[in-house]
């Protein structure tokens, strides 16, 4: 083969490759699966669930048709999609209790709030049901249906609803350090650091950073250990994580510098402040 022939062959091969480019595989990352519901576990509160999923508690309550008491029960299924309130199919007015049914399973089946369902049917905790019993699903008018007749009573509706006294919050909050120590991890949302880590002495006492009401005290949130959440106003919450011992309970009011927990041997405390559901830099608040 002459040099000219070889050169022509190479040119033809190169031209062929240029006309048939290799296919490119799309490596775009598929969208992540969004969690849409949450089943309430023992010890959880609406505040702890909202905290876990980075939601605003009032929007979570609205999406699940909860009143200002924010009462939830173990086994209840909550929707996590804000702006999509649960509602009962208007064609469904009653449910006949089958063997194995509970008020929680019925509430979950029809997407209603279990406390509203209990009030509508004059049921008290532990909400015992009998097979064949008729449960009214009309939680708006508090219709009473127990198998014989259906009757509506506005007087009963008024009496059966529990009045929850709203806690009084300070308008002029003054924040103080919840524990003495050194900040070893700063606030950095870009690095998924929604709060700060403070290295303190072993077994140190943790204080309330500001006056408020305990809305969660437990160990149900993965990664937080024994956690306390305090509500300081309609917009401000603070959280104290990695505790060894909790000294307060849900519903308890605390004043500035009240003892709320004890740290473990490592003396490590994680502290967050959230404003209207969003993490904010604690160092801009505490002094």
What this model shows, in words?
This protein is of the alpha+beta class. The protein folds into two domains: 124 residues, Membrane-bound Lytic Murein Transglycosylase D, Chain A, CATH 3.10.350.10; 103 residues, Glucose Permease (Domain IIA), CATH 2.70.70. 18% of the residues lie in helices and 25% in strands. The chain has six helices and 16 strands. Strands 7, 8, 9, 10, 11, 12, 13, 14, 15 and 16 form a ten-stranded antiparallel β-sheet that branches. A hairpin with a 4-residue loop joins strand 5 and strand 6. The protein is flat, with a radius of gyration of 28 Å. The termini are far apart. About 14% of the residues have low confidence.
Topology:
Elements: H1 3-19, E1 37-39, H2 46-52, H3 57-63, E2 77-79, E3 94-96, H4 103-109, H5 114-120, E4 134-136, E5 143-145, E6 150-152, H6 154-160, E7 182-185, E8 196-199, E9 205-207, E10 212-218, E11 226-231, E12 236-246, E13 253-254, E14 259-263, E15 268-275, E16 278-280
Antiparallel strand pairs: 1-2, 3-4, 5-6, 7-8, 8-15, 9-14, 10-11, 10-13, 11-12, 12-14, 12-15, 15-16
Average pLDDT:
77
For this structure, what is the CATH class of the largest domain? Answer: Alpha Beta
Which word captures the global form? flat
Q: How many helices does DSSP assign?
A: 6
- Strand tally is 16
Our Rg estimate from Cα atoms comes to 28 Å
Tell me what the CATH architecture of the largest domain is: Roll
Largest sheet: 10 strands, antiparallel
What is the SS-derived class?
alpha+beta
Helix content: 10-25%
Ends: how far apart? 87 Å
CATH superfamily grouping of the largest domain:
LysM domain
CATH topology assignment of the largest domain:
Membrane-bound Lytic Murein Transglycosylase D, Chain A
> Which series of helices and strands comes N to C?
HEHHEEHHEEEHEEEEEEEEEE
How many domains make up the coordinates?
Answer: 2
């Amino acid at each position: 083969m002459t040099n000219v022939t070889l050169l022509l062959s190479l040119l033809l091969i190169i031209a062929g490759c240029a006309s048939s480019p290799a296919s490119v595989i799309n490596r775009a990352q598929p969208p992540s699966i969004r969690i849409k519901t949450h089943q309430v576990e023992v010890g959880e509160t609406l505040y702890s669930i909202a905290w876990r999923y980075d939601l605003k508690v009032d929007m979570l309550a609205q999406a699940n048709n909860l009143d200002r008491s924010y009462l939830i029960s173990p086994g209840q299924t909550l929707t996590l999609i804000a702006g999509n309130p649960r509602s009962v199919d208007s064609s469904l007015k009653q449910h006949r209790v089958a063997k194995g049914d509970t008020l929680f399973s019925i509430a979950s089946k029809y997407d209603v709030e279990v406390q509203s369902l209990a009030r509508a049917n004059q049921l008290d905790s532990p909400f015992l049901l009998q097979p064949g019993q008729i449960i009214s699903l009309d939680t708006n008018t508090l219709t009473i249906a127990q198998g014989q007749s259906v009757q509506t009573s506005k007087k009963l509706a008024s009496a059966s609803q529990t009045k929850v006294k709203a806690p009084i919050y300070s308008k002029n909050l003054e924040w103080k350090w919840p524990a003495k120590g050194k900040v070893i991890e700063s606030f950095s949302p870009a690095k998924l650091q929604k709060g700060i880590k403070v290295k303190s002495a072993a077994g140190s006492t943790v204080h309330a950073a500001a006056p408020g009401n305990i809305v969660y005290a437990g160990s149900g949130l993965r990664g937080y250990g024994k956690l306390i959440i305090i509500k300081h106003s309609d917009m401000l919450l603070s959280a104290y994580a990695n505790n060894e011992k909790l000294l307060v309970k849900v519903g308890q009011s605390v004043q500035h510098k009240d003892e709320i927990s004890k740290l473990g041997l490592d003396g490590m405390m994680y502290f967050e402040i959230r404003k209207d559901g969003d993490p904010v830099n604690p160092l801009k608040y505490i002094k």
